[in-house]
Design a protein that fits this description.
Helix content is about 40%, strand content about 15%. By secondary structure, the chain is an alpha/beta fold. The chain has six domains: about 80 residues, no CATH class; about 200 residues, 3-Layer(aba) Sandwich (Rossmann fold); about 220 residues, NAD(P)-binding Rossmann-like Domain (Rossmann fold, 3-Layer(aba) Sandwich); about 35 residues, no CATH class; about 90 residues, Orthogonal Bundle (Non-ribosomal Peptide Synthetase Peptidyl Carrier Protein, Chain A); about 80 residues, no CATH class. The chain is flat and about 115 Å long.
Length: about 800
């Protein structure tokens, strides 16, 4: 405590005076709490570095920022080394009183989400109509599992039949190829069915030709692909049934195979929205005797529009994604220690994780990658970890190889036992469902699912503080062209739930988008148009710490604007999964459904168009297009949309194009193709096309031409001929005239002796059809068509 010594204080003030004389006016006291600097004169700027009970980096940086504002040259770029941060340019144009600054960072409760199950209350008795195709896997009587599936087939068939459906039963070999499936489905006339219920998702036996792949996932994928090839324009819906694939309660132990079917199905729903009906999970072994007939039929009849449902003895439950809430459950939280194993540790996410573990107390890191030390950047990563005070081992190992992984685990030093496993390895995949074969499915499942299963089996007897699985949002809500990847990530959640049910540590985190992780500009722009924002690595890792501190089993960490995500996600089918998220839920209750062609036209638009000349119609429609384009792109108003600017150049993606088409279609009461924005180069061209489609002015012009032709035709036909042909009475009825109905005639026929406007006189009342002969043809035409003299 040298600074408490009076003599030292005097010497300090002598130094201050000396430096002040030399022009130095800023002083920094490096200590746990500033004591000397508060004694300085007011005209001298003095700051500290830390404060009592505030010894964090944040406090230090706050002081550094204070010094920076007083002219001290701070090298800020050094602070952000190896964090993935990058400079952001300010706008080059004069400020326009609009907010372009980065938004303040939100806390981890704003990014963390959970999947929950909502109890569904079905009312009334559902009925099915038409012919339904029930597909079950080929029976293998020696296997108890498929014996239970045989019972399930009987139960489902009885449920369908007793509720009004005509059922055709088809058995399929789960290992059949696409060609064989096409033949079987064609013979069963599948495309003419009202609906299809598949039990292929209950056959969890290994696929004989592809190690690491189960028959449930492979056969469900092939069935969806085959039906997609066959059902162009058909209204048939495919419903997939699984058994014990999801955990509605913490005690349940979901199967990995069934979870993969659900992950696959969520992706199929986005790629084939017209074909995919949904997923229904029936009770597993613990509730095998539960009757599910009435509940199943309620789901198939689309009661409530639910498409991800679990049936249990206690009722039916719909899957929901909600913001995470609640206080931490752990007393002290998670702190890395000893040896920590990181698979995929030499990759981008693994590298951030490894540095985070080293900074927070891990003594020894074992980083596993397929290429080991040959991985680009591995040596730099090792140097960073060692600089942070931890030792590191980079090992080449394929975690899908159980023997190789077992050998590596056996080689770990006994004096630094393994305390935690972080599984960040995986094989990214993006391809259309139609182009994904079983070989690709096997490759994607190998690293993520097989590796996770091997880690689980080989470490279950060790005392671990944490067992963390890196998953993806594709396994939670699905993703177009990510069917295999979605299946693999969904299995990780199921494994974590199984481990927790067995009282083993487990946490599965489904990540959203990270900054700077190899995502190209096109991919980042597309995800941005969905409302998914990239997270800084330090922000994501803070959410990881919070998830572990709270002792959570499964969590989804994503920075998303759900109000923007929802319209794109539900463009072709509703999704109860996300309807209760902030920004999606409306004041009237559940999430707003996407507007369709049946939605009433925008108030006033059609009325304005009908009463406007051609030039004004164009401007009305151009304003309509610009306003909705501005909303789709997130601009404050239509003035930001150049009428001649190309839609693609303005930033339209496939998602925002769908949104624009839906909004414009709803506004004018017409169904517009999803490619409307791409079919027309700019807003002015789109407005012109809308004018053609609506044909408001053309209808008026065509009507006027037709009326003139009818007038000319009627004036040339004698009235007696119309009466003899039986047409005269019909014409009078069209004019609202019948015998005995008063008719006002502006100019009375010659010889009638009736004054104009005398509506009560005999000449102005048609007592019989014969009296029509007294009218001339032009007067009759005016009566029928409502001319000016009628």
């Amino acid at each position: 405590y040298w600074y408490r010594n009076l003599r030292q204080t005097v010497r300090f003030h002598d130094t201050v005076q000396h430096l002040q004389a030399d022009g130095h006016t800023l002083f920094i006291e490096t200590s746990a709490h500033p004591v000397l600097t508060p004694t300085l004169p007011d005209d001298i700027t003095a700051i500290g570095t830390l404060r009592r009970n505030e010894g964090t980096l944040r406090r230090f940086l706050t002081h550094a920022a204070e010094a920076f504002t007083h002219g001290t040259p701070i090298q800020w770029t050094t602070l952000y080394d190896n964090t993935g941060a990058h400079p952001t340019d300010l706008p080059t144009y004069p400020f326009q009183r609009q907010h372009y600054w980065l938004a303040p960072d939100r806390d981890g409760d704003g990014r963390r989400h959970h999947v929950t199950w909502k109890h569904l209350s079905f009312t009334g008795s559902a009925r099915l109509t038409g012919r339904w195709l029930l597909i079950s896997p080929t029976d293998h009587s020696a296997d108890h599992h498929t014996d239970r599936n045989g019972e399930l087939t009987t139960d489902v068939a009885q449920a369908l039949t007793s509720h009004g459906a005509t059922v055709t039963h088809l058995t399929i070999d789960p290992t059949a190829d696409r060609g064989a499936l096409t033949t079987l489905l064609t013979e069963a006339n599948a495309t003419a069915c009202t609906g299809i219920v598949s039990l292929l998702g209950t056959d969890e036996l290994p696929h004989p030709g592809h190690p690491g792949v189960d028959r449930a996932t492979a056969s469900t994928m092939l069935l969806a692909q085959t039906l997609a090839d066959m059902t162009q324009g058909s209204k048939v819906r495919l419903w997939t049934v699984t058994r014990g694939a999801v955990a509605v309660s913490p005690a349940e132990r979901p199967s990995l195979a069934g979870a993969q079917v659900w992950g696959l199905g969520r992706c199929v729903a986005l790629e084939l929205p017209a074909l995919w009906g949904g997923l229904v999970d029936v009770p597993g072994a613990a509730e095998a005797g539960v009757r599910i007939g009435e509940q199943l039929v309620q789901v198939l009849a689309a009661a409530g529009g639910e498409d991800q449902v679990a049936l249990r003895a206690s009722g039916a439950y719909g899957r929901r994604l909600l913001p995470a809430t609640g206080a931490p459950t752990g007393a002290t939280g998670y702190t890395p220690r000893g040896t920590v194993l990181v698979t995929g540790g030499t990759g981008a996410l693994g590298g951030h994780l490894a540095r985070w573990l080293a900074r927070n107390g891990a003594e020894h890191l074992v980083l596993i990658g397929r290429r080991g030390k040959d991985t680009p950047g591995a040596s730099e990563l090792s140097a960073d970890i060692e600089e942070l005070g931890a030792s590191v081992t980079v090992a080449g190992c394929d975690v899908s190889d159980r023997d190789a992984l077992q050998e590596l685990l056996a080689s770990l030093p006994a004096d630094r036992p393994l305390t935690a496993v972080f599984h960040a390895a995986g094989v990214p995949h993006s391809a259309a469902l139609a182009d994904t074969d079983v070989e690709t499915l096997a490759r994607v499942l190998s690293g993520k699912v097989a590796g996770a299963r091997h880690l689980h089996e080989l470490t279950r007897e060790r005392e671990l503080d944490a067992f963390v699985l890196y998953a993806s949002g594709a396994g939670v809500w699905g993703g177009g062209e990510q069917s295999a990847y979605g299946a693999a990530n969904a299995a990780l959640d199921a494994l974590a739930e199984r481990r927790r049910a067995e009282e083993l540590p487990a946490t599965s985190i489904a990540w959203g988008l990270w900054e700077g992780e190899g995502m190209g500009q096109e991919g980042a722009a597309f995800l941005g148009s969905l409302g998914l924002r990239p997270m800084a690595p330090e922000t994501a890792l803070a959410a990881l710490q919070e998830t572990l501190d709270r002792g959570e089993t499964c969590a989804t960490v994503v920075d998303a604007d759900w109000s923007r995500f929802a319209p794109a996600f539900t463009a072709f089918r509703p999704s109860p999964l996300i309807e209760e998220l902030p920004g999606v839920r409306t004041t009237d209750g559940p999430a707003a459904r996407p507007e369709s062609a049946e939605t009433p036209a925008e108030h006033g638009v059609m009325a304005r168009l009908r009463g406007a000349p051609a030039a004004e119609r164009q401007e009305i429609l151009l304003d309509l297009v610009r306003r909705h384009a501005a909303v789709a792109l997130g601009h404050p108003g239509p003035e930001h949309i150049d009428p001649e600017g190309g839609f693609r150049q303005l930033g339209f993606s496939s998602v925002t194009a769908v949104e624009l088409a839906a909004k414009l279609g709803a506004a004018v009461g017409r169904t517009l193709p999803a490619t409307f924005a791409f079919d027309h180069p700019n807003a002015r061209a789109a407005a012109g096309r809308l004018d053609e489609l609506l044909a408001v002015g053309k209808d008026d012009e065509d009507g006027a031409d037709l009326e003139a032709e009818v007038r000319r035709a009627l004036q040339t036909v004698p009235l007696a001929r119309l009466r003899d042909a039986g047409l005269l009475e019909g014409l009078l009825e069209l004019a609202g005239l019948r015998p005995g109905t008063a008719v006002a005639v502006a100019d009375a026929p010659a010889g009638s002796g009736t004054a104009a406007g005398d509506t009560e006189s005999h000449a102005n009342r048609l007592d019989t059809l014969d009296e029509v002969d007294e009218l001339d043809a032009e007067s009759l035409v005016n009566l029928v068509l409502g001319g000016p003299d009628s």
